[in-house]
Design goal:
The chain is of the alpha+beta class. The chain has a single domain (3-80), classed as Arc Repressor Mutant, subunit A. It is 59% helix and 17% strand. The chain has five helices and three strands. It has helices spanning 3-6, 10-22, 27-33, 38-50, 72-85, and strands at residues 24-26, 54-59, 62-67. The protein has a three-stranded antiparallel sheet. Strand 2 and strand 3 (62-67) form a beta hairpin.
Amino acid sequence: MDLEQLIASSCRRKILKFLWQVDSANIMKLIRKINSTYSQVNPNLRILSQEGIITDLRQCRRRIIKLNRENPKTILLLQALKLLNH
C-alpha cells in the first residue's frame, strides 16, 4: 500500500498521531484516546501491522501496539503527518 492510501483513513491518522506521542499503548487505551471503537480500529491496526508500521504484541491478555520507528515507511508517514498538521 502506498503512503497516500495509508494516511487516507482518518482512523489510521489518529492511531499514528497517538502512537507518535506515546510510542506504545495497550489497545483499549488507544481506542479511548482516539475516541473510536474496536471494530473501527482493529482493521486499521491490521493494515498498519502488515505494512510493518506498527508491531502488535500480546502479553497474556493485554495487546500492546507499538510504533515501528525503524521502518522507513513509518518515518515518511510521520513526516507527512507533521507537514499536514502545519
